[in-house]
């Protein structure tokens, strides 16, 4: 097994459809669960059918297989430092820590995360 490449792009929740995918695109492991949870919620709210949800989950699995996936636990310490200093959630801070470690651009649709992240890494607001 070869070590993962450093991504140039780290995805964060909403707005991903407008972010270019490259061979260097990466994300945290729990982002896949977050997206799956959003699909589940859409079914419960009757915004999509269960059949459409299953198709979206299959597409998500294919997308995940094309991404470099990083373990959130590897970025907990730095994420915790950023979260405390900036008064943001550890969840948001771990994405910043990943982008910082990899010298990556962070794409986000979260305004607060964007405002903090741009002090640490190149950040693009999506949405």
Give the uncertain stretches in residue-range form: 1-13
Helix content: 40-55%
CATH superfamily of the domain at 9-31 and 67-125: 5'-nuclease
Q: Give the ordered list of helices and strands.
A: EEHHEHHEHE
State the CATH architecture of the domain at 9-31 and 67-125: 3-Layer(aba) Sandwich
Principal-axes geometry comes out as globular
Report the end-to-end length measured between terminal Cα atoms: 36 Å
The percent range for strand residues is 5-15%
- The gyration radius over C-alpha positions equals 15 Å
Per CATH, the class of the domain at 9-31 and 67-125 reads Alpha Beta
Compute the number of helices.
5
Q: How many strands in all?
A: 5
The mean pLDDT is: 86
Strand order of the largest sheet: 3-2-1-4-5
Protein structure class? alpha/beta
Write the layout of secondary structure elements.
Blueprint: E1 9-10, E2 25-28, H1 29-44, H2 50-66, E3 68-70, H3 76-86, H4 90-102, E4 105-108, H5 111-117, E5 123-125
Parallel strand pairs: 1-2, 1-4, 2-3, 4-5
Helix pairs in contact: 1-2, 3-4
Description:
There is one protein chain. Helices cover 50% and strands 13% of the residues. The chain is of the alpha/beta class. It has a 5-stranded parallel sheet, sandwiched between helices. Helix 5 links the parallel strand 4 and strand 5 (123-125). Helix 1 (29-44) runs antiparallel to helix 2 (50-66) and helix 3 (76-86) packs across helix 4 (90-102). It is globular, with a radius of gyration of 15 Å.
């Amino acid at each position: 097994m070869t070590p993962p490449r450093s991504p140039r792009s780290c995805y964060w929740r909403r707005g991903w459809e407008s972010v270019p995918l490259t061979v260097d695109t990466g994300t945290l492991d729990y982002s896949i669960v977050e997206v799956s949870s959003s699909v589940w919620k859409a079914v419960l709210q009757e915004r999509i059918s269960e059949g459409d949800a299953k198709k979206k989950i299959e597409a998500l699995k294919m997308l995940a297989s094309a991404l470099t996936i990083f373990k959130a636990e590897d970025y907990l310490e730095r994420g915790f430092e950023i979260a405390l200093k900036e008064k943001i959630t550890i969840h948001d801070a771990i994405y910043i820590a990943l982008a910082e470690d990899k010298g990556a651009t962070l794409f986000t649709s979260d305004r607060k995360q964007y405002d903090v992240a741009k002090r640490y890494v190149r950040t693009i607001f999506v949405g």
